[in-house]
Amino acid sequence: MTVAHPPLEQHFVVSWIDWDTYVIFSDKLGERNIRVNYNGVNMELMTTSLEHENAKTLLARLLEALTEEMDIEIKSGGSLTCRRQDLDQGFEPDESYWIERAAQMFDRNDLDLTRDPPPDLLLEVEISRSFVDRLAIAARLGVPEVWRYNGQTIRIMLLGSDGHYVENTRSRAFPFLSVSELIRFLHSDLSRSETKLLRAFRAWVREQMVNGWPTAPAAPS
Fold first, then answer.
1. Domain of 92?
2. Contact 102/73 with Cβ under 8 angstroms?
3. Spatial contact of 134 and 148, defined as CB atoms under 8 Å apart
């Protein structure tokens, strides 16, 4: 007898949902391991797998270790709900950070995107394909930079003046960092031990700083 196993990540889309229904449904879910995306018409619910959560956490820990070693101030937002009623858009990223505009968020305990700046950087892990265009929602909300990690490589997407993302070889938030080095660490044997991975990465960052890395990121253009 063959036993059918459900996919590790599942996507459910409900169409023709208005804003109030989306907000009520999203808020009623409370603490859960589900991402909710909304593009003004369709609401998508996505479950996440261990592979997905481990990948996004490892990448986030590397970035946070980098900012700590280089004394770069950040404000972490995690997978907080980012939404604007006037734009009829909402989604929940895997990880989010304010970097250039971190100081504007230090005393904030909630997020109102009609008043507060959107995160400067989002991390999006794409182990499975979303049916709602999350990148388009991030663009509508004005997020300057998105890193898309599919388990193999990272694609850096920068928001252009036309409101669309363009893939770039360098990060706006960390222009001195070679993303290939992040991939090298994520795919090394050290990734089997998160503690050893973080120790090795911190040692590498300190070595780069001694060899001439800047002590703070260049200002985004």
1. 48-210
2. yes
3. no
In a domain, residue 79? The reply is yes
CATH number at residue 138: 3.90.1570
pTM score: 0.85
What b-and-e string marks burial along 88-124, b requiring 16 or more CB atoms within 10 Å of the CB? ebbbbbbbbbbbbebeebeeeeebebeeebbbbbbbb
In percent, the amount of the chain with pLDDT more than 90 equals 48
Residues whose CB is less than 8 angstroms from the CB of residue 151 and which lie 6 or more positions away in sequence, other chains included: 51, 55, 125, 127
Residue 68 CB neighbours (<10 A): 12
With both helix axes pointing from N to C terminus, report the angle between 194-210 and 50-69 in degrees, rounded to the nearest 10. Answer: 30
For the chain, how many structural domains are there in total?
A: 1
DSSP per-residue string spanning 161-194: TTS-EEEESS-SS-TT--HHHHHHHHTSGGGGSH
Q: 6 lies in a domain?
A: no
Would you say 119 and 82 are in contact if contact means Cβ atoms under 8 Å apart? yes
For residue 37, being part of any structural domain is answered with no
Q: pLDDT tens-digit profile of 69-121?
A: 999 999 999 988 899 999 999 989 999 999 999 999 999 888 999 999 999 99
Is 21 inside any structural domain? no
The helix, strand and coil proportions of the chain, stated in percent and rounded to the nearest 5, come to 35, 20, 45
**CA distance linking residue 120 with residue 96, whole number of Å:** 8
> Coil, strand or helix: which one is 53?
helix
